[in-house]
């Protein structure tokens, strides 16, 4: 059975050309920035951090010595980190390309492909952060792209597979999420940015918004969706579970093996 999203609005003629061109331009930009970020991330990761708070996956001098005692190099850790970024991004990008190739005349399918490219290559792995740090001229474009990815991934959960907010109150959560995320990306040092919040509060906020997205999908599945849409929802639940499970597994791995 077809597992691609299908909405009631299809694009034709000039609008279809404009939508496809815009999607390709956006995808090329995101991919180019992602590729440009890889050498920067590699150098950042292999640099031993001597500060009290280390950014990203940088290691301390004590950890570097522990690696050397095991016969492992810091370069190996950096290469491993980059490999995770690349695999994560490649999976998202491949799925987005398939959706774009098969259903680019459907506006919701285009939105799903757009979300996968943006979140998978920019927002999810936070791969562009060091690029923005090393090249300040790219800070605003990187923050904008990452912000769009964060917003679109939640809206995707609220509107898939019909393109409508179901239940209707999820549209207000989407607006609130935009308000919550904007300070984090554009005013990271402000008291409104979640970067300055206690970790427990950040977890609760994420659990609330994305838990509502999971609830929305379950609600659709049981009360709104037809047979075809239920099959699509199963694919979404499987994909989200696999992605979150993979990220959780990697996080636990870093906790188990310092």
**Count of separate structural domains:** 1
The biggest beta sheet is recorded as: none
Count the helices. How many? 9
The succession of helices and strands, N to C, reads: HHHHHHHHH
State the helicity in percent bands: over 70%
- Rounded to the nearest angstrom, the radius of gyration is 20 Å
Distance between the termini: 44 Å
Unreliable residue stretches: 1-6
- The number of E-state strands comes to 0
Q: Mean pLDDT, as a whole number?
A: 83
**Which structural category fits the helices and strands?**
mainly alpha
Description:
This protein has nine helices and no strands. It is mainly α and 258 residues long. The chain has one domain. Helix 1 (13-46) runs antiparallel to helix 3 (74-103), helix 4 (107-123) packs across helix 6 (139-159) and helix 7 (170-186) packs antiparallel against helix 8. The longest helix is centred in the first third of the chain and has 34 residues, at 13-46.
């Amino acid at each position: 059975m077809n597992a691609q999203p299908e909405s009631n609005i299809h694009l034709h003629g000039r609008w279809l050309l404009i939508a496809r061109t815009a999607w390709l331009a956006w995808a090329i930009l995101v991919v180019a920035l992602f590729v440009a970020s890889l050498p920067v991330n590699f150098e950042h990761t292999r640099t031993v951090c001597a500060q009290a708070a280390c950014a990203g996956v940088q290691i301390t001098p004590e950890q570097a010595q522990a690696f050397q005692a095991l016969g492992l190099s810091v370069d190996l850790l950096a290469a491993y980190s980059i490999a995770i970024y690349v695999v994560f991004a490649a999976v998202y990008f491949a799925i987005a390309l398939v959706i774009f190739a098969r259903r680019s005349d459907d506006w919701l399918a285009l939105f799903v492909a757009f979300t996968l490219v943006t979140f998978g290559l920019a927002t999810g792995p936070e791969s562009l952060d060091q690029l923005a740090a090393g090249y300040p001229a790219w800070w605003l474009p990187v923050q904008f792209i990452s912000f769009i990815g964060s917003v679109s991934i939640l809206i995707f959960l609220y509107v898939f597979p019909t393109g409508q907010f179901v239940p209707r109150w999820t549209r207000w959560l989407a607006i609130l999420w935009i308000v919550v995320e904007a300070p984090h990306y554009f005013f990271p040092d402000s008291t409104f940015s979640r970067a300055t919040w206690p970790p427990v509060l950040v977890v609760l906020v994420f659990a609330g918004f994305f838990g509502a997205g999971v609830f929305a999908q379950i609600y659709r599945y049981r009360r709104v969706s037809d047979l075809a849409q239920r099959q699509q929802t199963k694919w979404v639940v499987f994909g989200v579970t696999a992605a979150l499970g993979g990220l959780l597994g990697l996080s636990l791995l870093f906790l188990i093996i310092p």
